[in-house]
Amino acid sequence: MATVEERVKAITANVLKLNIDEIKMENNFTADLGAESVQSIELVAMFEEEFGIEMDEDAALSVQTVGEAVDFIAKVCKEQGVDVD
Amino acid sequence: MGKVKKKHRLVDAKRPNLLNDIFPYSMPPRISLEGSAIEHIDGEPVEFDFGAVKDRPIYISDTTFRDGQQARPPYTIEQMVHIYDLLSKLSGPNGVIRQTEFFLYTKNDRETLERCQALGHTYPECTGWIRAVKGDFRLVKEAGLKETGMLTSCSDYHIFHKLKFRSRKECIDSYCEVVDAAFEAGVRPRCHLEDLTRADIEGFVLPFIDRLMEMSRQVPEEQSVKIRLCDTMGFGISYPGAELPRSIPKLIYKLNRECGVPSDRLEWHGHNDFHKVHTNAATAWLYGCDFINTTLFGFGERTGNPPLEGAIFEYIALKGDLCGIDTMAITELANYMGSIGLPIPDNYPFVGRAFNTTRAGIHAGGLRQDEQIYNIFDTGKLLGRPPRVAITDKSGADGVAHWLNEFFGLKGEDRISKIRVHKLARWVIDQYDVDGRLTAISDQELEAKAKELYPDYWEKYKSGK
Question: Which run of H or of E encompasses B127?
């Protein structure tokens, strides 16, 4: 099974139309990867669908970087009993 | 750099102070007036107690069927009767809209008045409007009216160039003959000082008023002359320190305190040629005119008159109370007037299609969190018009989420989150970024998309089952 990091990067690349190799953990979704308002919520929706979880809207949208997203999603998966990594 | 007169210390807060005493939201924001205003008149400081307006009786009068009608194709009888009925509903039992005025010259005029009177409403009281011609009082008596307006133009533009009097004395004598005829007919004359803000106040207006006051001492109080101050061309100025004849404070002072015309016999009538019409009317209230004369949605000669619905909200703000006014009738009137072809601009306050529609996504975000952030007061409760968002490329996910939740009527926990609207938000943004659209997206288009993307919500909230 792909890691949380790999899955997050794959979705990010798909939504933001980027090459997956260009995405780093320290990248800011907005400032570095160019995510716009609608793309930000698309990312959250895709993460929820990919991992089968439900995230708090405000908490999810306040995540700034790819690395923070990985940590946040891993935490939510654990809380909601979803098996990852 | 400027001189520092006073230093100010930050008052820190961990909880917001929303100034609810001023902005209760359930009501329009309050206008609290403290202390007095000083106006220098003829070299002397004169005090005006603005705070008294909260408890002082003030009123709105209406000229929708007269000045308002002069600016548009004629209303039918049925239309006027219906509008009059709604004005009464709006006015409430306390008669905040105290009077309205009717033409009396044609058969239709008289039938309209009869049918309005037949509705049996106490308010607004029906009054007439006639030329300053003695014979016309017959019409007023036959109509069973107790009061009528009559033109007594007071600027030299009118006296000499329009009415062709040979002198000011001839003019005053002519007007006073007509006032006498009113008294003989048992009718209260309301003298309309047309073009007042361009008149010789000391040389013509005040001597005329003095004479009217003297004549009024010979008749019962209920017949004594009322005065309508007509800012016919919109020249009136509300600013302290402005000069006559344009100064509204000074005009009212002269008539009220120098000539002794009681406040309840003074009425302000304005026009909007310089965008000042509403503030000028409210100023008249503050300086001692008990009545302001208005039309629905400001429709009137040329640029229009003080808007009645603006006066209504100003009244509520000054009084701090609804006073029996049914503000929902404003929306009923707007819908009715729209249905009979009166063009109300989209951005017109309180009644325009978009008066409380926000377009910017960042504002929609605020609206979504708390509608008080970007809505002037509870327009849903007071006007049946909750705040809306118009969807454009600037709306963002917040705007789309707000629109969708308002469309389905969802509140609280039932509201669809911003995340769940991503497909609709994507469709919206693609209209502009991909398809090159330049226009706002209509409600009809959004409704069709909402039905397609949210079939469960549609089934539950829109299918009518």
Answer: strand B125-130
Question: What's B205's domain CATH number?
Answer: 3.20.20.70
What tokens were used for B425? Answer: 């938000």
Q: How close does chain B come to A50, measured CA to CA in Å?
A: 14
Question: Is B12 a domain residue?
Answer: no
Q: How many domains does chain A have?
A: 1
CB contact B139 to A (< 8 Å):
no
Residue in chain B lying closest to A37 (CA): B396
One-letter amino acid at B394 equals K
| pLDDT for residue B465 is more than 60 | no
C-alpha distances (whole Å) from B459 to each of A24, B370, B394, B452, B454 are 44, 28, 29, 11, 9
CB of B365 within 8 Å of a chain A CB? The answer is: no
Q: Do B361 and A55 touch (CB under 8 A)?
A: no
**A41 Cα to chain B: minimum distance (Å):** 5
Asked if A48 lies within 8 A of B419 by C-beta distance, the reply is yes
Residue A85 lies in a domain: no
**Does B426 lie at the interface with A, CB-CB under 8 angstroms?**
yes
User: Domain residues for B375?
Assistant: 357-461
Measured between CB atoms, does B404 come within 8 Å of chain A? no
Please give the mean pLDDT across all residues of chain B.
93
> In terms of domains, do B97 and B241 share one?
yes
Any idea which of B3-12, B31-40, B403-412 has the lowest mean pLDDT?
A: B403-412
Q: What percent of chain B has pLDDT over 70?
A: 98
The answer to whether the CB of B392 falls within 8 A of the CB of B402 is no
Is B445 inside any structural domain?
Answer: yes
Q: Are B299 and B425 contained in the same domain?
A: no
Residue of B nearest to A60 (CA): B419
Put simply, the answer to whether B425 touches A60 (Cβ < 8 Å) is no
Both B247 and B205 in one domain: the answer is: yes
pLDDT the model gives residue B368: 64
The DSSP H or E segment spanning B194 is none
pLDDT exceeds 90 at position B58: yes
- Residue B419 to residue A57, Cβ atoms within 8 A: yes
The answer on B387 and B330 residing in a single domain is no
Question: Are residues B425 and A55, on separate chains, in Cβ contact within 8 Å?
Answer: no
User: What pLDDT, in 10s, does the model give residues B178-197?
Assistant: 999 999 999 999 999 999 99
- Do residue A37 and residue B397 have CB atoms under 8 angstroms apart? yes
Segment B306-318, tens digit of pLDDT: 999 999 999 999 9
What's the rounded Cα separation, in Å, for the pair B54 and B56? Answer: 6
pTM: 0.83
A49 in a domain, yes or no? yes
CATH of the domain at A67: 1.10.1200.10
Range of the domain at A20: 4-79
Provide the angle, in degrees to the nearest 10, between the axes of the packed helices B396-408 and B443-453: 80
